[in-house]
Predict the structure.
Amino acid sequence: MPMTITINGTERPLPADPRVSLLDLLREHLHLSGAKKGCNQGACGACTVLVDGQRILSCLALAVQYEGRSVVSVEGLGADGHLHPLQQAFVEHDGFQCGYCTPGQICSAIGMEAELRRGVPSYVTEDVAGDAIALTHDELRERMSGNLCRCGAYNGIVEAIVEHHRAKEAR
């Protein structure tokens, strides 16, 4: 029985070569080009995807490590031909210029919001024993610091994330 991985809701066989990175599985084997190969060293965040809801750098992960798990790339975020609300916020706030880092930024921001809900502290979290962590200016920048934008679209990125986070909290 072949080993499988679920990618964007569809079960897929893992490659026979155990050295294939998760990023290469997505891009080269499955032709999902959303996650980008920026630095291929885990320094830029362009390859960020979600595994069971947690953000990871797919360039540093071997695909076989995630056998039986659920991976969501930027292509799997929207539904029924509609953008995910955070993707829409990026459009509305010009949270991109060239767009190369955008998929990683979006997946990272979704993973970051899940970390906040779980109460995972960051380096700048003031009350690590508290039940809830607020998305402050410093908290957002610290948590997104692993995602680089060479174009400098950070203001739009931050505005999009803040709007999306506020909308989710209002529900």
